[in-house]
Amino acid sequence: MASTDETSNDRQTMAYDSEVAPGVYRFGTNRVNWYVIEADGELLVVDAGLPNHWEQLVDGLDSLGYSLEDIAALILTHGHGDHIGFANRLQKTANVPVRVHSADVALVEGDSEENMREVVWNLWRPAVIGLLLEFSRSGGNPSPVETVESFEAGTDLELPATPQVIHVPGHSAGSCVLYLSDRNVLFCGDALATVDLKTGRARGPQIMPMFTENTKQAVESLDQLGSLGEVTLLPGHGDPWRGEMHEAIRLARSRK
């Protein structure tokens, strides 16, 4: 029988949350996260959730005293559908640039498809059924983004909060994390999760159990993050986690 945690309706209804780090706000649901960074009167959106999260964006910005015109860019940690939800709409409505690592441009533009094999194999699980129902109720497949700007790793983006891009392929070829060194915040996309989407249980840092293209490579990519020290880890799926990055990596490797 599915636990209350796996089936709770609040997974569909969570809106703008409190600050999860200085000047960083969490949006989405308990299954699917995206974030807004505030810096020097401008905003940077990290990932775009699901298509129907658009109203969260508009209402949340209004609550913070901002509008769509204050968004400098939308940065995608990778090109999977549950991260590009309202990206095309934001670009068309407010002319906001959408940027992703060059290896995932085809995913964002709709010229390539993500691997759904693990999802099919786990359709017997109540938590996976709940996840797919949430995707369906939240607008289904997102529209491809017509104009995508690419970036490479190893640089600090000239955007609000100056995020540092670290390429961590494995979940997807272009999977990246974004590090804010002045706030010790790491947006880890799906390089790490803190909830097991197969079971709905919160287990702390772990490799994504589904949708990951190359698990071995995903684990190896974590080596690039070990020197970051104490961080607030903000994943695409699950609650924030705070602690030493080497401990997050240790936990993830023990649970793969």
Specify the CATH class: Alpha Beta
The domain count comes to 1
Q: Quote the average pLDDT.
A: 89
Give the % helix.
25-40%
What would the principal axes of the Cα set say about the shape?
globular
CATH fold-level name = Metallo-beta-lactamase, Chain A
Description:
The protein has a single domain (4-255), classed as Metallo-beta-lactamase, Chain A. It has nine helices and 14 strands. The chain has helices at residues 4-7, 10-13, 54-64, 87-94, 105-108, 117-121, 126-137, 215-221, 245-255; strands spanning 19-21, 24-28, 33-39, 42-46, 71-75, 98-101, 149-151, 164-167, 176-180, 185-189, 193-196, 201-206, 230-235, 241-244. The protein has a seven-stranded mixed β-sheet with strand order 1-2-3-4-5-6-7. The longest helix is centred in the middle third of the chain and has 12 residues, at 126-137. The radius of gyration is 17 Å and the shape is globular. The two termini are 25 Å apart. Residues 1-15 have low confidence and may be disordered.
